[in-house]
TrEMBL record:
Protein's organism: Taibaiella chishuiensis
Name of the featured protein: UDP-N-acetylenolpyruvoylglucosamine reductase
Pathway note: Cell wall biogenesis; peptidoglycan biosynthesis
InterPro entries according to UniProt: FAD-bd_PCMH, FAD-bd_PCMH-like_sf, FAD-bd_PCMH_sub1, FAD-bd_PCMH_sub2, MurB, MurB_C, MurB_C_sf, Oxid_FAD_bind_N
GO cellular component term of the entry, any: cytosol
Enzyme class, spelled out: oxidoreductase
Compartments where found: Cytoplasm
Catalytic activity annotation: UDP-N-acetyl-alpha-D-muramate + NADP(+) = UDP-N-acetyl-3-O-(1-carboxyvinyl)-alpha-D-glucosamine + NADPH + H(+)
MF-aspect GO terms: FAD binding; UDP-N-acetylmuramate dehydrogenase activity
Keyword Transcription annotated: no
Cofactor: FAD
Example of a GO biological process term: cell wall organization
Length: 338
């Protein structure tokens, strides 16, 4: 049975720092507490699952019942000579799982160090950074189906992972509550230092022998120097996805804008950094009143304090329109607008 609280302040529970209220709010730290959730009178206006609030922009008070996932626990299910399988409670903090894996010598998620949020949200947008995505290590996702009250386990293939995408952002959006994720990590590490400036950072750190910890430390150093800390400036990381376009369109743009960066993907597709497109449109460092675009990261929209979520959502649309007008590319938001 959930302990539901009315008119609950969400200001400290979202990294944009939006000062909004949930009409009703409850936390849960055991799967059993979810039984009969659909029948709760408080759920009549719908249910919103909250993890770390680091991929959300609240544009106003939330009429739904906000259920805050706090299910903890890391259980080693099994291991063989090469791999270890961990079942992790969805309310565990993602970076704490990374630190646990680093300390235990389990490889696979060290490149994903310092990504904010919970383990349960990691499969939703298939979090990724520095050449690694959550889908590379997720074996299965366990969820509670709100309508039926049943628990289901989906295997990796059935999660339909793609770049910042999965079945949880599509058919199952707002219909399920992820309660646990099973990861298969490597006891024999395969290091990935080719992406971004990891190697450069390792060199600067004087690392001569690669290790899981060295890579995690390098990623932490790079991220801390590049991304605004939400405790200081409200933000939700990259606000937009990097668009993947037909390579013919990319080449046509390259003829016109020779410095446009692009990364070739299979299937005649090229990924273009959204930050570059936004910067070219003159938005980097833009500020209006108490919100704007970060001065170092054109991909990051920020709340300098007391901004309204609607103003930031409107700014994101204006940016999308200006990129579409100039480059003929429709940006997509990565952040969930609530
Ligand atoms: C500074 C900063 C840097 C970031 N860098 C990266 C990065 O490098 N790569 C990256 O991929 N992301 C990045 N992000 C985005 C964010 O960290 C991830 O999307 C993260 O997975 C969100 O986790 P959360 O628990 O905060 O989710 P929330 O923001 O609480 O929720 C996000 C969405 O998932 C749903 N949800 C959450 N938990 C559950 C659950 N248990 N069951 C069902 N639905 C659920 C919510 O309803 C919502 O729709 C960054 C964010 C910030 C602030």
């Amino acid at each position: 049975m959930l302990q539901v609280q009315p008119h609950y302040a969400l200001a400290g529970l979202n990294t944009f720092g939006m000062q909004v209220y949930a009409a009703r709010y409850a936390t849960f730290d055991r799967e059993e507490e979810l039984a009969g959730l659909q029948q709760e009178p408080a759920a009549a206006a719908g249910i919103l699952v909250l993890g770390g609030g680091s991929n959300m922009l609240f544009t106003g008070d939330v009429p739904q019942l906000v259920v805050h996932n706090r299910i903890k626990g890391i259980v080693k299910l099994r291991e063989d000579g090469q791999h270890v399988w961990l079942q992790v409670g969805a309310g565990e903090i993602w970076h704490e799982l990374v630190l646990y894996a680093v300390a235990a010598g389990y490889a696979g998620i060290e490149n994903l160090s310092l990504i904010p949020g919970t383990v349960g949200a990691a499969p939703i947008q298939n979090i990724g950074a520095y050449g690694v995505e959550a889908k590379d290590v997720i074996e299965a996702v366990r969820y509670y189906d709100i309508a039926s009250g049943a628990f289901t386990v989906l295997g990796n293939e059935d999660c339909r992972f793609a770049y910042r995408d999965s079945i949880f952002k599509r058919e199952l959006k707002n219909k399920v509550i992820i309660t646990a994720v099973t990861f298969r990590l490597n006891k024999i590490p395969v290091f990935n230092t080719s992406y971004g400036n990891i190697q450069q950072e390792l060199d600067a750190m004087g690392v001569t022998e690669l290790s899981i910890r060295a890579i995690s430390d390098a990623v932490i150093r790079i991220r801390s120097s590049k991304l605004p800390d939400p405790r200081e400036i409200g933000n939700a990381g990259s606000f937009f996805k990097n668009p993947e376009v037909d390579t013919d369109l990319y080449l046509a743009l390259k003829a016109q804008y020779p410095t446009i960066p692009g990364y070739a993907l299979p299937g005649h597709i090229t990924k273009i950094p959204a930050g570059w497109l936004i910067e070219q449109c003159g938005w980097k460092g833009y500020r209006k009143d108490n919100y704007g675009v970060h001065k170092l990261q054109a991909l990051v929209l920020v709340n300098y304090g007391g901004a309204s979520g609607q103003d930031i959502a409107d700014l994101s649309l204006t940016i999308m329109n200006s990129v579409a007008e100039r480059f003929g590319i429709q940006l997509e938001r990565e952040v969930q607008i609530i």
